[in-house]
Amino acid sequence: MNVDLGIWSKLTKVVVGLVVLAFLLLIGMYYLPLIHQNERMRREILRLDAQLQKEEEKSRQLKNEIEALRNDPKTIERLTREKLGYARPDETVVRFEPATTNAPVR
Predict the structure, then answer these.
(1) pLDDT in tens, 46-57
(2) pLDDT, tens digit, 9 for 90 and up, residues 11-63
(3) Separation of alpha carbons 61 and 55, rounded Å
(4) CA–CA separation, 103 vs 81, rounded Å?
(5) Between residues 59 and 86, which one has the greater pLDDT?
(6) Which residues neighbour 103 within 8 Å (Cβ) at sequence distance 6 or greater?
(7) Rounded CA gap, 31 and 37, in Å?
(8) Predicted confidence band at 66 (pLDDT cuts at 50, 70, 90)?
(9) Which residue of 11, 26, 58, 68 pairs with 75 in a disulfide if CB–CB is 3.0 to 4.6 A?
């Protein structure tokens, strides 16, 4: 038997559909802040990974410099000449000073 309730059966279907839609919207609104937080954290992870790669590269360079200072006498000689201004007994050291200007001091 199929009983026709008229408009009430159609309204019941519409109300059930609206309730389901409202429930889905509530779930979406509940998870939206979590989705935004997840996106922020992913951006932060990418930024930190890039910073980590830079720091690892800097660390490799410093290790190479330390290794050169320990094992390469030419490196030590070059740094001694550059930093301390030393020279061999038969060499003449010429130092250049920066150009001075007559610009007014502020």
Answers:
(1) 999 999 999 999
(2) 888 999 999 999 999 999 999 999 999 999 999 999 999 999 999 999 999 99
(3) 10
(4) 33
(5) 59
(6) none
(7) 10
(8) very high
(9) 68
CA-based end-to-end distance of the chain: 100
CB atoms within 10 A of CB 81: 14
Question: What does each C-alpha distance from 25 to 14, 15, 34, 100 come to in angstroms?
Answer: 16, 15, 15, 72
- Distance, in Å, from the CA atom of 15 to the CA atom of 29, rounded to the nearest integer, reads 21
Exposure of 27 in the CB half-sphere (CA atoms within 13 A) = 6
Calpha distance 89→15 (Å, rounded):
100
